Predict the 3D structure of the following.
Amino acid sequence: MGRQSYPIDHKMMKEFARKHPIFRIDSPSLKEIAAFHEDGFVAYPNVLTNEGQQGFTDEILSRDRVVEFFETTEAERSKPDKPQDFVWRNWDDKGPWSDQLFDAPFVKALMRETVGQEVHFCHSTMHFALRGSGPIPFHQDHHHWRHENPVNLAERDKWYIQMLYYPIGFKREDKSLSAIAGSHKVAPTSDVTAERMLAGELDEQAGRELKQVDLELPPGSMVFLNARTFHAVSAKPLDSPQECRIFVNYIFKEAGPPHRYTQPIQPEWLELADPERKRLFQREHWTEDCWSRWMA
Ligand SMILES: O=C(O)CCC(=O)C(=O)O
Ligand SMILES: [Fe+2]
């Protein structure tokens, strides 16, 4: 399927997905779901099909904004300033591979086994890190936990899930992802820090040993992450053998008030969606005053 502007005919996309599934598997195992609940994340190394890994990567690299970024980056290389990392939020210009990541059988099964039926798409992003890219310290991305607005205080126990895709993978200490296993079990008070967790001060509260897990993932991998779980990313060394690390994030939320980044859905996405996908997309998006309306 050639480069076309998105969304193209949804029936065509579905037909493509049926013939060319992006995932090797259609559902998680019980053991994986148990590990997810215990650790706050589960890694799926090489979960994309060979064709999916290649197609997804090519699709990413062929987006107009991406082509422009690399053209600019080439020009910037001869300048003294380092080129900036690339962040695309919201990445709405999908193709037939990234389109599958909304609701492939594997995605739906993961959601069904964790969140349940009341799940909404929140937003999706694309990121590139070039050599010299800095580290990201330990953090949580669950907005109901990070915003003190009464709506968020009331909604804190609802699910906020990130599906982190690494189409070309990463090596340890080369923009590698680390997570503190079990950290999702600690109450979200302001005195909780990654340092205290790693020093063992909060093990008793979590009911387990909180420990740092440093990942290394081959191309075509995904990490299914409870966004309460503390996670961090190392820097990309200047002499990294990988020129540019690619990371794509699909975020889903339990039904309820918008999160800080819950994105607007384009009308054409809804027009073309089947009923199941419509349910994923039919929710309120974030606006400056949305939380005050939810409390009224
Ligand atoms: O780059 C990654 O692997 C994860 C990045 C991250 O944690 C974030 O963007 O919030
Ligand atoms: Fe994060």
The chain has a mean pLDDT of 93. The chain is about 30% helix and 20% strand.
